[in-house]
Amino acid sequence: MATISTPNGFTLDNSGKRVVVDPVTRIEGHMRCEVNVDDDNVIRNAVSTGTMWRGLEVILKGRDPRDAWAFTQRICGVCTGTHALTSVRAVEDALKIDIPENANIIRNIMQLTLQTHDHLVHFYHLHALDWVNPVSALKADPVATSELQKKVSPHHPKSSPGYFRDVQNRLKKFVESGQLGPFKNGYWSNPAYLLPPEANLMAVTHYLEALDFQTHIMRIRTIFGGKDPHPNWLVGGVPSVINIEGPGASTSINMERLNMVRSIINQSIEFVENVYIPDLLAVAQFYKGWLYGGGLSSKNVLSYGDIPDRANDYSAESLLQPRGAIINGNLKEVFPVDLRDPNEIQEFVPHSWYAYADEKKGLHPWDGVTEPNFKLGPNLVGTRTNIKEIDESAKYSWIKAPRWKGHAMEVGPLARYVIGYAKGDKEITEQLTLVLKTLDVPVSALFSTLGRTAARGLECQWAARKMSYFLDKLIANVKAGDTATANTASWDPSTWPAEVKGVGFTEAPRGALGHWIKIKNGKIENYQCVVPTTWNGSPRDNEGNIGAFEAALLNTKVERAEEPVEILRTLHSFDPCLACSTHVMSEDGRELAEVTVR
Amino acid sequence: MVIATDFDPPPPTAPKPNGNGNGFQPAIYVYEFPVRIWHFVNAFAIAALLVSGYFIGSPPPTLSGEASDHFLMGYIRFTHFAAGYILIIGMAARTYWAFVGNKHALEIFAPPILTAKFWDNTWHEFKRYVFLEKEGRKYVCHNPIAVLTMHFMFLWGITFMIFTGLALYGEGTGMGTWQHTLFTSWIIPIFGNSQNLHTFHHLAAWSILIFVMIHVYGAVRDELLGHQSIFSTIVSGYRTFKSPGKPEDMDRA
Amino acid sequence: MDETFYDVLRRQGVSRRSFMKFCSLTAAALGLGPQLAPTLAHALETKPRIPVLWLHGLECTCCSEAFIRSAHPLASDVILSMLSLDYDDTIMASAGHQAEAIVEEIVTKHKGNYILAVEGNPPLNEDGMYCIIGGKPFVEQLKYAASNAKAVISWGSCASWGCVQAAKPNPTQAVPVHKVIHDKPIIRVPGCPPIPEVMTAVITYILTFERIPELDRQGRPKMFYSQRIHDKCYRRPHFDAGQFVEAWDDENARKGYCLYKMGCKGPTTYNSCSTTRWNGGVSFPIQAGHGCIGCSEDGFWDNGSFYDRLTNIKQFGVEENADVIGATAAGVVGAAIAAHAAVSAIKNARSKGDNE
């Protein structure tokens, strides 16, 4: 192969120099990326490989469905809880359990807390070093940094020259020690870094501030779920009880706990609005010419929607995060999405390390089969246990290729914002308009690595504000006399029908997440997860369509082929979560039980 | 060594030796006083342990009122621990007595499994229990099936319960206590975790209950249908015989 | 020049005088006697921050997430001032070859003087290729990184016991770290994840006292893992009184009664959740209304439902709890006894009849 065109409109050319990045760092889990660059250092072919598989779904078989949240929660400790929430929703869907209003509100607060925390930590601690150069910060003038800070964020109190000088001194000592820790072997002399020293110092300062501040955010989930990461959930509601003034109130959700939640929400909104958003805009100003990385975002995007305003109503009208699919870049039409339809969501494996009886076909998750099949192609360079260059013409990833009506889709904050914008969502449109105006860029600039990073920041702000909305709602509900937090009518498995199936979904910080469950005689018969990184990190399908990671890397110009800053930048903008891309297999290669789709 | 106790009743008036006409084996003193008292103390402890243990696993319904008004689980657990210690001390004393008491005291600790006669008797008694043999044979002490049940179900079962029980108790008394050092510290790793240890302690308790059922039934049945006294023996210590002939284990006895 | 512990303290505003006082106290705590304080001071003044390699196998990154949530000390202080976190693929700036080069550099240049921290565990099936780092099985990277380590910290239940991917049927054959590393001291800090402040406390203990903490037989620091959650639970009085939550969100739940009947695993779980609590001491699972699921215990995934008090016996191919098995067996034996008694009575009556 020299040059081929993919059905979804990309051109691949693997004749140039092969560059391998393994491990891809600052992500959750393990991933490998290989690209071919041409003589002008432009990426002409991209191959993304999920390099881990844990088999959680097979472990779930035969277990108590009420326990499934705990297992699936351990799929990912970064987007901790979102799998648990998806799981309890799937079980409730199967058993037709309605949860109390308060439980819905508390779950929403917990999910929004995650989005706020996850986006903030992603921006500063997983993504910022792709744009920000901490070594350059040593050259900054603290006075000028202070002025920059006051200009971009007049309300942030930590802005004095002395403050920045202290941070700089601390950084200087650190760098001079010769022990650079996490900053060791970074690409600090690469011309791809465009920020002036003052902006670098400001951003590094906030890297540390954010690292300290984020410890507070998740305490909201500690209050409702007991611990974080991995708080506790409950099929039928939430485990925490509301007791505002009765005996024993001091150990439940009471006024003190609500005040603490309120205080953390307020601090979070302040931090996001005074630090995160200004930093995002300040950094973007310097990089707004770097508009690579759009990939699928301008073509095909998907969102299931989340944050039901009304308990037990998962229709698009009730969901505060938008639901729908856009294909072929037509923003004028947002298609409805049906997770139960066997022809909509399907997974393919021709390039994944799994075997199907007929690999030409895709399977809906309720019919899902996965049997690991670790095979490498004939053009592999290296050996089975020492891969130098992978052969993408054969199987090359532990991630399956999910497709919506045959289309490879991008999911995540940018997908949600594009869909919300296309649907005319008021809050999303306002936020986007303000950002585009501030940066003085057209709407098309959204479809880029930077656009993805910006959408995440805006969503963080939206989520922080919505926490406040739901806390008000919780208090109003309690004031009206409703203190129920769990529906236990169907708690006992002996009350369940012999065979049921259900589907649950959320919008994880990284994108659309669905769990499909089948319950037989009180036990899990089959469990399937299709997760955001399965969508974004998908390998090719049998038509040759490439997934979102691969598409986004194409045509990017890199400064130095041996230093993968630009590759990391674009991959990180998706916030990859590789541990999530686990799949089910039958224990001995038998096909899993047939499931009829209703 | 024989330790005489004041509680041993005087033997019944010396019977005539065999050949006095009816061929009955005269009464034999089998269960010395310490064995008899241990038997009932132990039975009481096991009953208390089974009941209290069941309620530790599945507590009774909640009591209303202040926590300080009640100590129900505390009392249940106290009962369990106290009965456990009584059982352990009793078992220790009984083990000691196996070596210093009369020959019968050793029987359940060391069944004569190396003798052909023992297995012949076992086979005979087995056939009797499955109704293939009409009459049982006579024994001074236990019949061989009873010996095997006593040894394997009771003795090993109780040993397992004592070791696991002390290991669980040591979890509460904590590191540095003798229970923890001698039991908990190495027994939990064998079971993997504390919960598995609880589970197997609980399961083995049921096997003790099953032993009790078999033991009591066997005693009742042999009292009614067998050739020797059972109930009166565990009370008085003397075995009397209802039919003529020499008991099978007379030589050992 | 490498920054020493003394430099760090000075940079953080600690005076020479306080530093010497710290050294005397530490020397005393270590049982070295006051005359050794100057030696200790000298060691601390000239000792660079200890390099740490933090590897990730099959895991979910919850341990790293927990670590950065530590309230005291803050993760930023640990990373910038206490140790040198030279490799941690979750936060490190470099990637690919440049990242791999760091492992090699530390292993060769800091022989016997770096700590290996492991999050997650190696799978052994499929030649280890269920977890690939740099094109090779993770287990190779793990063994290599451990080869010259001073000590190994097994973070969380994955590295300590195996955790969720090792739950039955363990399709990838994931094994805890001590199954592949045999020649190094291993400190196990279990939990899914461990308590954030426990993680940083273990690190700071090692740096402060310059020794690994006292471990129990299963390799866990005694200071955090020697007592059960139940032993120090604030709801314990309700347990002793026999007051339990009988159903979710019932009146008893609102009064904060004991969660024992809801399957709480506090009585069988060794951890310090009920004392240290979580995320800066805000709460812990039982306080928030859900029972403990026993996440710091070996094999906690395979003990039956989290909501059952009596757990399933799975060792003999049956899947029932001890009471069901025991009661069934007792029932069968009881029925057999009754039948046997009936047959005995009939036979006896008949034989008596024959005799007459």
- CATH topology-level name of the largest domain in chain A: Cytochrome-c3 Hydrogenase, chain B
Oligomer: heterotrimer
Number of helices of chain A: 15
Superfamily at the CATH H level of chain B? Transmembrane di-heme cytochromes, Chain C
Computed Rg of chain A: 24 Å
Query: In CATH terms, what is the architecture of chain B?
Result: Up-down Bundle
CATH architecture of the largest domain in chain A: Orthogonal Bundle
CATH superfamily of the largest domain in chain A: Cytochrome-c3 Hydrogenase, chain B
Low-confidence stretches of chain A: 583-598
Number of strands of chain B: 2
The low-confidence runs of chain B, each spanning 5 or more residues with pLDDT under 50, are 1-6, 16-20
Major sheet of chain A:
3 strands, antiparallel
From the spread of the alpha carbons, the general shape of chain B counts as: elongated
Strand content of chain B: under 5%
Secondary-structure-derived class of chain B:
mainly alpha
Structural class assignment of chain A: alpha+beta
CATH class of chain B: Mainly Alpha
**H-E order of chain B:** EHHHHHHHE
GO molecular function (chain B): electron transfer activity; heme binding; iron ion binding
GO biological process, one term (chain B): respiratory electron transport chain
Keywords (chain B): Cell membrane, Electron transport, Heme, Iron, Membrane, Metal-binding, Transmembrane, Transmembrane helix, Transport
Protein name (chain B): Ni/Fe-hydrogenase, b-type cytochrome subunit
